[in-house]
Amino acid sequence: MKSINSWNRRRHADRRRLATLSAMLLAMLASCSRPPAPIVARDAERDDLEVVVDRLRNVLGESTPATSIPNVTVVPTTRIVKEYDMQPAADGRPAAATITIRTIPGRAALAEKRGDVDNPAESVEDSSTDETYQLAYGEKGWELVEQPQTEVEKLWFVYALPD
To answer: What pTM, to 2 d.p., does this model score?
Structure first.
């Protein structure tokens, strides 16, 4: 009885495989008769901006700071790309973009600044700051309109922008 059941199972599985392969072959033949869908090229400036933003996120190290370490009240300052936007080229002006970077200060730094060193976690309010950077699309790709003021900010964009 076992051999008949296993033979029936194999026969049934073979029929399912054959049906699946037949359906795939029919689908392939049906798709061959249609003209190929046109490939729509994405905007090169937008693609380049997304690369710049990805590289900025990488250099800023967008991640959640490790706060699960016991008895540690120091939380490092976090910087994230809050938002970015692009205006396409028009009327002879190049494409322009803005990138906003949010700085979220660490709890210990805020507590020290406010004079509450004993209880830094409770003295922290939402005191994040936003800095907006203007970019223009030139011959080499995206370029800063104005140079950042600090060396650290300059290094972010040296890394993120194309050579």
So the answer is: 0.59
